[in-house]
Write a structure and sequence with these properties.
By secondary structure, the protein is mainly α. It has five helices and no strands. Bound molecules: heme C.
Length: 124
């Protein structure tokens, strides 16, 4: 009888230990992890074009601002090569800051665009 009680007691202790262990695991993974900026798979079609899509309100349609249509790879790669794309987006001196009248792109989006330009602005 005593042995049976001890067994029950230790079983309860073990269960208790398990429960608190799980509680700690939940707490440890409870914080939302900050997603790192992944610049390792940057492509024109998969990364650059979707980012620049937000500019198409002005740089799209039949009369794009400054004659620059972000939907055209040929035009985007030309602006990448002559420095205007990053110059305007980084708000560098001598360039008209883009997006005009809006907030700068996120650091992560800028890092991806820089990565693409540094790779030679490939049509991939
Ligand atoms: C509200 C309209 C508007 C938005 C949004 C906008 N632009 Fe512009 N953009 C212009 C205008 C207008 C010009 C012409 C220069 C000026 O007036 O500042 C221009 C000029 C440029 C130029 C220089 C072109 C040249 O030939 O001199 C680049 C590059 C550019 N924009 C890129 C972008 C990118 C990339 C985005 C999106 C992140 C963007 N713009 C968003 C209106 C806009």
């Amino acid at each position: 009888m005593v042995i049976k009680l001890l067994t029950l007691a230790s079983a309860a202790l073990l269960l208790g230990a398990c429960a608190s262990q799980n509680g700690e695991d939940l707490l440890a993974s409870g914080g939302v992890p900050t997603p790192a900026c992944d610049t390792s798979h940057v492509t024109y079609a998969g990364t650059v074009a979707p980012i620049l899509q937000q500019c198409s309100g002005c740089h799209g349609g039949s009369q794009p601002s400054a004659g620059f249509a972000v939907g055209s790879y040929a035009q985007v790669s030309t602006k990448a090569a002559n420095g205007q794309l990053l110059g305007t987006l980084n708000h560098d001196a001598g360039y008209s800051p883009m997006p005009k009248g809006g907030a700068k792109l996120s650091d992560c989006d800028l890092a991806k665009l820089r990565q693409w330009v540094a790779a030679g602005a490939p049509n991939n």
